[in-house]
Amino acid sequence: MHLSRSLILLLAVVLPTLASMASAMTNVPVSLRPDQSSIALNASVGVLEDPRGELTLEDIKSRIEQFRSPAIESESGLNFGYSRSVWWIKIDLQRPLAGTPDWLLEIAFPQLDRIDFFGADGEHFAAGDTLPAASRQIMHRHFVFPVFTPRAVAASQPAGDVLPSTATANGANATIYLRVASNGILVVPLTLWHSAAFHAETQTSYVMLTLLYGVILMLGLFNLILFKDFGDKVYLNFALYAFAIVFAQFSVNGFAAELLWPRLPEWGNIAPLVGAAICGCFGMLFTRRFLNTARTAHIFDGAILAFAGLFALSIFTPLFLSTPLVSIQLSFVATGGLLVTLLAAIQGVRQGANSARWFLLASFPLFIAVAATVLRNINILPVSFLTLHGVRISIELHVLILSYALAQRISATQHERDALQFEAIKTRQELVDVLRQSEQQLESRVTERTDALEQANARLRENERQLKDAAHSDPLTGLANRLLLDVHLQHAIKTARRDKSSFALLLIDLDKFKPVNDTYGHAIGDDVLRAVAQRLRSSVREMDTVARLGGDEFVIVLRSVGNHHDVELVATKITLAIAQPIKVLGVPIEIGASVGIALFEPGLNVLGDLLRRADSAMYEVKKSGGSGHRFYAAKPTVRAEPEAKLDQGNRAA
């Protein structure tokens, strides 16, 4: 009994003493020295909760003794979690004796709804994401206030906002009050900056973040180009994911409110939540396609789609739900979604998917950072570098690793294509070997049967000769063959003798035709012969006869010619027509024609003398370089056995 009374008395004495000590701790002023560039204030301030948000500055001044040290002390910032209360923060400063330099107070959390700054010289400024960024005293992505200002500034404020100065002389103490309220997460990182150091740090951070966001945007554009070239939708999903990350980070870090919509506070208040939801939605869709969960992790595929749907729904919830509810919802959806994607990646790693290894490496730090941020938001973890900047740093690392993985994907795809191509070539070579072996076997069998088929071939050749003799047209060109030519020549002789007229026989041999066959093959050579036949038809009258002797030799019988000049005109027309390039399968082929001309005279043997004369004249053209015409002269150089050659050509036809 005595022990209980003694314990109660001890607590009654100790607890007020501890409370007064805690209160006294908040009253130690922060010394501002010219050699300091920045001071973290988060462990050197006093805080007071205003649950109803009804206290005025005068009320606060009368309750100085109620200010306490933060419940969780941290050098990185004050953390009040999802608090609906208004919080007052008291900062005691000691001005330097050497004078008052330019000092700035930075609150590096752009998602705070409203901050009222009551300065040491009686000034009052207000800022927050529910107020236009354009109205801030100092334009910055964070909330920045001048600590000491001339009294002229204080005089310009409304009377109700002016706080009488707590200190005016150098070396005296000065007190700053902050009234902070927010419907979302209430984190207040406080830093005092010397003006020059602040501007230098701002310039550095702006340049670094701009470069980083620029790199992510370039990666997004590059993957759009890859999608256009390869058609793989994983590149499109990554591009959209990268753009969403930039939008979300731009909003969360305060850049968007400062640069894009400085006069749209309503949108600026919900833009970070909308950006996070868009980022999560595209991230889930990219993850599903990148990991190919429909094949490698089917059990998680539906869950990933469900989380993508939740993120898509969260894009619109800020229009209907309060900011705390949306923020809490997004925190847990993001944590759950990341956990599911990590499990899917682990499943992919177990199946040997290389992309899953890269995804696990890229996403595990992000999961840790998001989980730490969620624990900070519910006031379990203190404000620290990890909980303040972990998500931003890890998501940027996440994008860079994934972009490298996609580059590896291109390389792997190329290697796979090369392997398939090599396999196809190998298979083709094996097929060629099999065909060659079969060909050799076939040749052996053909050799064995050659003797047995010789008599049959002789009979076939005889039948073929008889069929050719019976036919009147050349099967290749459609021109008259030798048999029909003989008939037309006999008819021309009768007509010439009856009418006492004359006719001419033109023997045409193509120049440079053999290289066509050697270069392009006989199929192309046949096409050239058909084209020549068509041009010969077009160069003479319908009553004249155009025949093919065989190979590349043709004969034209010009009836009822008046004189040499008429025949020469036709011969010139023929040589010019044949000299024009012949296009076969888009390839221009150039040949020429050597034309020998013999005129009919009474007493000549048509199949002997007349053809021999034309052949002799054509031979003279050949000797002169070809591509021209010549009439039979009195004593030309004549090739041996021209008629025999013509007969052989006729048989070849």
Q: What is shown here, in short?
A:
The chain is an alpha+beta fold and 653 residues long. It is 57% helix and 14% strand.
What does this structure look like?
A hairpin with a 2-residue loop joins strand 16 (582-584) and strand 17. The chain folds into 3 domains: 25-196, Immunoglobulin-like; 206-415; 480-652, Alpha-Beta Plaits (2-Layer Sandwich). The radius of gyration is 50 Å and the shape is elongated. Helices cover 57% and strands 14% of the residues. The protein has helices at residues 2-26, 57-61, 151-155, 195-230, 233-252, 255-259, 265-291, 293-296, 298-314, 323-350, 354-377, 385-470, 482-499, 514-520, 522-539, 564-579, 606-623, 642-652; strands at residues 30-31, 38-40, 46-50, 78-79, 86-94, 103-107, 114-118, 124-127, 143-146, 173-181, 187-188, 190-194, 504-511, 545-550, 553-558, 582-584, 587-589, 592-599, 628-631.
Query: How much of the residues is beta strand, in percent?
Result: 5-15%
Mean pLDDT, as a whole number?
Answer: 81
Compute the separation of the termini in Å: 139 Å
Class per helix and strand makeup: alpha+beta
Question: Helix count, per DSSP?
Answer: 18
Q: Any idea how many domains? A: 3
Low-confidence stretches: 1-26, 151-170, 636-653
- Share of helix among residues? 55-70%
Number of separate strands: 19
Coarse morphology: elongated
Biggest pleated-sheet summary: 6 strands, mixed
* Gyration radius, rounded: 50 Å
What are the main properties of this structure?
653 residues, alpha+beta, Immunoglobulin-like, Alpha-Beta Plaits, 3 domains, 6-stranded mixed beta sheet, 5-stranded mixed beta sheet, 19 strands, 57% helix, disordered N terminus, disordered C terminus
